[in-house]
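User: Show me a protein chain along with its predicted structure.
Assistant: Here is one chain, sequence first, then structure tokens.
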Amino acid sequence: MVDTDVLIVGAGPVGLTAAAELRRQGVACRVIDRLPARLPYAKAVGVQPRTLEIWDRMGMVRAALEVAVPMRGHLLYDDGVEQDRFEVRLPPEVPYGFAALPQYETERIIEEQFARFGSGIERGTELVGFTQDEDGVVSRIVTASGAEQEVRSRFLIGCDGAHSTVRKGLGLSFEGGAFPEEYMLADVAVDWSLPQGYGIRATHHDEDGRIDDLLVCIPLPGDRRYRMSMLVPPELSASGEGALHDSVAHGLEGGRAPELGHIQAVLDRLSPEPTTASAMRWSSVFRISHRLVDRYSLGRVFVAGDAAHIHPPTGAQGMNTGIQDAYNLAWKLALTLEGVARPRLLDSYDAERRPVGEEVVGRTVKHATQGIRATPDDMTTVMLREAQLLVAYPSSPLVASGDTGSPGPRAGERAPDCAGLLAGVVSTPLRLYDLLRDRGHVLVLYADSADALAWCREAAATGHRLAGDRITAFVVGRDEVTTQSVRQPADPDGLRLPVFRDGAAEFARLYGVEAPTAFLIRPDGYLGARLSPLTASDAASALSDALGRVFRLPQGLGAPREGPAGRGPGVSQGPPTDRGSRSADRVSRPRDGPCRGRQDSCRRRTDRRHESTNGPSGEPQ
């Protein structure tokens, strides 16, 4: 008997993302955090467009948009002279821009999403140790009252930061180093006339051309309020204090907190124009390291976020990379716990996310020491990479080989948004992301003629036959001739396969389609397969291969069996029907969307009744 399906250690943005998505998928989980309350610090501030796309898929982006500050660009000053001013522009089809949001607001928003499913954070509770076996993990925790308890879970996720207890308990290496500089950080208001929505970076160089003074300001919600970082003066140095309890010198340090006068002194030296700082909300001293764990999981235990990778905060990559870690892992855990995942699905978490962490660590170290323009790419590519829109998994075991010669996105790459989709009962055009929101795997079928609709019917029927109600299907048609409702022959209720017209031809342009094509879009918004050209005869084989990389398919279909379902050697999930050993507050996973039967509507009502109610830039990640 287990106490919960998943125990998550750490209630920062990464741990809360994992928890909120798991609960949305109907997975029982507990979140513990050693802190008694959320910290009121604007540590991580930058929110990348890719993170906003994930929050859109989760159904929580609106809350972030209501309080975030749009990032318009950056102003760079050297020795008192403006050197560069650049706008942070993205292609018009990208639905969200760069945003600034203090970490305490990010945590509030995700925690409120988590709470929608009747769940809360167990504050003041600390993990002190754990063991694991074939069937689960036993964690020893100390609660806020000082009582020690054992928690039995099927999986454990360590989102407990740079000094992670989970990482240490697994015995994982965390190779890298630390920058010698120390910084101070403060949340203050100023009265300058610089344009709002711009980050400010001002430096001073010594006689040898080396930076000897630094000021970085990132806008926050409020009137001319910024999160400022700068080199620490000698009297505030907390050198070594952050590494007393382990060898990782990263994050906020102890020691004397900077006062408003320390911040004003730096502004007097480096501000582009005379200004006065006021209304300081908090301040601290911090250090920066760059390290990467040697693997993201071992058995039934995983690490994510700063527990797996730490690096300079240049470009605001850290928190956003961690949020994508958590989202990538959550949908795979949900399928595994439901008993429908193919064997070793969870191995793909390390296979997909560790290369991303390695690239981010290397790039941010380079940018921290040489500047963002050290990368030889054009600025559009640089901005897309900083926005994390170029993250891809071309070598993932989950990605099916297929069409590689078309100009649109390939398998393993992000599925772009597009506008201008029309439907008969909708008076305004829809975005593709509107149709993906709050759904799992989606099969998007492009039809360029009325004749292609027969292929679409067959492909949708094949997808339903292989993955059941875990896949949604709809058609994007080129013109009015193809945008008729298509009867889905595999549906005993006679429901119709929805068809949307590509009214602005954006889908065809952005996806590079010229013939009937199937796009299998994963829950995290990446293409699991791009299949074209296809005929009815080979659609079944191609879709079986693509879906068989994720799902446990009916016997005789899809990828070859690899042994018992689960996560690697020594880990068994039991058969798909093994429901009795799960946590008592495990709830059925709700489904909705096109091609859903009446049984799903009934199941959703049942779910609601039974849901549980329980050198660096100086900018921190």
